[in-house]
Structure formats: C-alpha cells, structure tokens
Amino acid sequence: MREILGRRLQRLRDRFQSLRPDPGQSGGTSALLDAALVCATTWQWPVLPGVGRSGTDGSRCACPDPDCVVPGAHPFDPGLLAATTDPRMVAWWWTNRPTAPVLMATGADAPCAVSLPAGAAARALVRLDAQGMRLGPVVATPTRWALLVAPYSLERLGELLYAKDHVPSSLRFHGEGGYLLLPPSAASSGGQVRWEREPRADRRPAGARGTGGAPGTEDAGSLWLPDVEAVVDALVEASSGAPGGGSRLAY
Known about the structure:
The protein has about 250 residues and is an alpha+beta fold. Helices cover about 30% and strands about 15% of the residues. The strands form two sheets. It has a five-stranded antiparallel sheet with strand order 6-3-5-4-8. A three-stranded antiparallel sheet has the order 1-2-7. Strand 4 (about 140) and strand 5 form a beta hairpin.
C-alpha cells in the first residue's frame, strides 16, 4: 500500500514539475505543494491555500484586516467554498503562491476536528490511549492540538454538547463550514504545524467505506477516524480549567 501511494504521488509530482517557476526552490516550499497534493489525492480532503503573511511585514496577515486574529492562517482569496481535491487546481495554486499555508475545509465528506490547548490535548491523548481508544490523525501547533474525527452535523454536535454540564471555552469545534491548518504550514503565532499522529491508510473489508472513499472499494483514501462522541468526554475533562485563550490558533 505504501509503495502504491508513493508511486501515485511521484507521478503527480512529475506531472506538475514543469509548472514550478523555480527548480531550485526551497525544500519548505516543495513540502507545502507535496502536502497539499497528498491531502487532496491520497486522502481526498478538499484543500485551499491560506492567505499567508504580508510581503512587507512578515508578522502581519496579508488580508486587509490590520487586527486579524489568525494572521496568515485563514481563507481569503480564494474563499473557503473553493476548496477542492482536484490536483490540477492544487498545483496551480501552490505554483503561484508557493509559501501559502495548507488549509482543509472541514465537514461534509471531509474530516471534522476538535482542537484544544496543547497541554490539555497531550493529557487527553494519554487518557484515551489508556482506554484503548483508537484515534485518528492529530494536528499539532505550538499552542493547540486538533484531533481529527469523523464528519458530524451541527445538529448532532449541538445535541451532544447540550447534554454536557459544562463545555470549556478552550475547546474549538471545526465542523461543516470550518477549516483547519495542516502541516507543514507556518502556525499563526510562530513555529510550524506538525503531525503529532500522522494519517495512515486503513485496510477495510471489501464493500466497506472509508472517509474519502467510494462505496464498495478499498481505496488509498480510506482513513480511520473516531466518532466525536468517542473522544469528547476526555477532551472536555482535559480542557476544564485550561485558559480559554489561544484563539489566534483556533481555526
């Protein structure tokens, strides 16, 4: 399976190599394009480039808002609805904007996510591992981690949270209409986004459907994701008492 994915990605790289304006571009720039292509083609996650930082002041967002709370790490042009799995569009975007952050549009057929402060998230993962919980990918920034979960509706999430006595303000839910910053993008307040736990293909019986897969196929995009109900109790408990800050990295 790993060899098949590697050959598929190499064909995509070769196909779009001629589009790159500078063959000697940095490894970080190449990594962003490669990551966007893997997300779009291997995992079938709709992606789009984030707005990035200002060319004149690297500490400021390139969007018109001088007080942007997530500098560089949000959609602007193109907007969120443009997110796609089309490798031609992905290659064109990152060829023209090679340092743009990689954003995934969450919800619908794509994964959703729950994010929380990094320290609380590390505690939650220890607890979930001790329970034998099978987890999916985990995205980490210097201050917040996000656990990817199976797609959920806003109605389903609302019912789940309504049943809780308390939901810490430090929790953020990335569902339909939301987005998540993916590795190896630059984080909003410095540092880099990384995988605490990387996505891994999940072998399923014939006829099963994985996230991003087609019915009746065992495709490369099959990926295990837990239901939000399975992890939310541990995340709520770990986040209780954690500061509600970190909003600059919330989305």
